[in-house]
Design goal:
Layout (H helix, E strand, L loop, with lengths): L1 E10 L1 H4 L3 H11 L2 H7 L3 H17 L12 E5 L5 E5 L1 H9 L4 E8 L3 E10 L11
Antiparallel strand pairs: 1-5, 2-3, 4-5
Length: about 130
Protein backbone atom coordinates (compact mmCIF):
# COMPACT_ATOMS: atom_id res chain seq x y z
CA UNK A 1 0.00 0.00 0.00
CA UNK A 2 0.99 3.59 -0.59
CA UNK A 3 0.29 5.89 2.35
CA UNK A 4 0.58 9.68 2.31
CA UNK A 5 -0.51 12.25 4.86
CA UNK A 6 -0.54 15.98 5.42
CA UNK A 7 -1.50 18.23 8.30
CA UNK A 8 -2.07 21.96 8.67
CA UNK A 9 -2.94 24.44 11.40
CA UNK A 10 -4.57 27.84 10.77
CA UNK A 11 -5.14 30.77 13.10
CA UNK A 12 -8.78 31.71 12.58
CA UNK A 13 -8.00 35.37 13.19
CA UNK A 14 -6.04 35.40 9.91
CA UNK A 15 -9.40 35.23 8.16
CA UNK A 16 -11.01 37.68 10.58
CA UNK A 17 -8.35 40.29 9.86
CA UNK A 18 -8.40 40.12 6.07
CA UNK A 19 -8.37 43.55 4.50
CA UNK A 20 -12.02 44.22 3.55
CA UNK A 21 -10.87 45.37 0.11
CA UNK A 22 -9.47 41.92 -0.72
CA UNK A 23 -11.70 39.69 1.43
CA UNK A 24 -14.25 38.67 -1.23
CA UNK A 25 -11.58 38.19 -3.90
CA UNK A 26 -9.57 35.97 -1.52
CA UNK A 27 -12.61 33.89 -0.53
CA UNK A 28 -13.65 33.35 -4.16
CA UNK A 29 -10.09 32.43 -5.17
CA UNK A 30 -9.68 29.85 -2.38
CA UNK A 31 -13.15 28.34 -1.94
CA UNK A 32 -15.58 26.85 -4.44
CA UNK A 33 -19.13 28.25 -4.62
CA UNK A 34 -20.39 25.13 -2.82
CA UNK A 35 -17.85 25.56 0.00
CA UNK A 36 -18.84 29.20 0.44
CA UNK A 37 -22.52 28.27 0.44
CA UNK A 38 -21.96 25.51 3.03
CA UNK A 39 -19.90 27.80 5.31
CA UNK A 40 -22.37 30.72 5.28
CA UNK A 41 -19.43 33.03 6.15
CA UNK A 42 -18.63 31.08 9.34
CA UNK A 43 -14.92 31.82 9.74
CA UNK A 44 -14.33 28.71 11.83
CA UNK A 45 -15.70 26.52 9.02
CA UNK A 46 -13.73 28.40 6.37
CA UNK A 47 -10.50 28.16 8.39
CA UNK A 48 -11.03 24.42 8.80
CA UNK A 49 -11.53 23.95 5.08
CA UNK A 50 -8.50 26.14 4.36
CA UNK A 51 -6.41 23.89 6.65
CA UNK A 52 -7.85 20.79 4.95
CA UNK A 53 -6.89 22.09 1.51
CA UNK A 54 -3.34 22.73 2.73
CA UNK A 55 -3.16 19.27 4.32
CA UNK A 56 -4.31 17.61 1.09
CA UNK A 57 -1.78 19.60 -0.95
CA UNK A 58 0.95 18.42 1.44
CA UNK A 59 -0.20 14.81 1.09
CA UNK A 60 0.02 15.28 -2.66
CA UNK A 61 3.61 16.39 -2.13
CA UNK A 62 3.38 19.64 -4.03
CA UNK A 63 1.61 22.30 -2.01
CA UNK A 64 -0.57 24.97 -3.55
CA UNK A 65 0.90 26.32 -6.77
CA UNK A 66 1.17 23.28 -9.02
CA UNK A 67 -2.48 22.73 -8.05
CA UNK A 68 -4.99 25.44 -7.28
CA UNK A 69 -7.10 25.98 -4.19
CA UNK A 70 -10.33 25.20 -6.00
CA UNK A 71 -9.03 21.88 -7.32
CA UNK A 72 -9.26 20.66 -3.71
CA UNK A 73 -12.86 20.82 -2.55
CA UNK A 74 -14.13 19.97 0.94
CA UNK A 75 -17.80 19.07 0.98
CA UNK A 76 -20.12 18.19 3.81
CA UNK A 77 -21.23 14.56 3.98
CA UNK A 78 -24.70 13.38 4.97
CA UNK A 79 -23.73 13.26 8.64
CA UNK A 80 -21.77 16.52 8.55
CA UNK A 81 -18.42 14.82 8.02
CA UNK A 82 -15.89 16.42 5.68
CA UNK A 83 -15.63 14.73 2.29
CA UNK A 84 -12.88 15.39 -0.24
CA UNK A 85 -13.39 15.97 -3.95
CA UNK A 86 -10.36 16.47 -6.17
CA UNK A 87 -10.60 18.17 -9.54
CA UNK A 88 -8.24 18.94 -12.42
CA UNK A 89 -4.53 18.78 -11.64
CA UNK A 90 -5.14 17.68 -8.04
CA UNK A 91 -7.07 14.62 -9.27
CA UNK A 92 -4.41 13.94 -11.90
CA UNK A 93 -1.64 14.13 -9.32
CA UNK A 94 -3.49 11.81 -6.93
CA UNK A 95 -3.98 9.30 -9.75
CA UNK A 96 -0.30 9.54 -10.71
CA UNK A 97 0.61 8.79 -7.08
CA UNK A 98 -1.83 5.84 -7.04
CA UNK A 99 -3.89 7.53 -4.30
CA UNK A 100 -7.51 6.45 -4.49
CA UNK A 101 -8.82 6.50 -0.91
CA UNK A 102 -8.84 9.71 1.14
CA UNK A 103 -9.87 10.59 4.66
CA UNK A 104 -9.81 14.11 6.06
CA UNK A 105 -10.47 15.30 9.57
CA UNK A 106 -10.99 18.87 10.75
CA UNK A 107 -11.02 20.20 14.31
CA UNK A 108 -11.35 23.66 15.85
CA UNK A 109 -10.79 25.64 18.99
CA UNK A 110 -11.89 29.23 19.41
CA UNK A 111 -8.57 30.39 17.93
CA UNK A 112 -7.29 27.55 15.73
CA UNK A 113 -8.46 25.21 13.00
CA UNK A 114 -6.51 22.06 12.19
CA UNK A 115 -6.92 19.43 9.52
CA UNK A 116 -5.29 16.16 8.60
CA UNK A 117 -5.48 14.33 5.30
CA UNK A 118 -4.58 10.68 4.80
CA UNK A 119 -4.47 8.99 1.41
CA UNK A 120 -4.08 5.33 0.51
CA UNK A 121 -3.52 3.50 -2.70
CA UNK A 122 -2.09 0.29 -4.07
CA UNK A 123 1.66 -0.02 -3.98
CA UNK A 124 3.57 0.61 -7.15
CA UNK A 125 5.82 3.27 -8.50
CA UNK A 126 4.05 6.51 -9.28
CA UNK A 127 4.48 7.91 -12.76
CA UNK A 128 6.82 10.83 -13.38
CA UNK A 129 5.25 13.87 -11.82
CA UNK A 130 5.94 17.44 -12.82
CA UNK A 131 7.21 19.40 -9.86
CA UNK A 132 8.01 16.29 -7.82
Amino acid sequence: MTLRCGIDLVEIRRLEHLDPQIRQRFLHRVFTPQELDDAQEDLMVLAGRFAAKEAVAKALGCGIGPISWQEIEVQRGPEGQPLLRLHGRAAERAAALNLCEWSISITHTRDLAMAMAVALGPSGSPSDLPGA
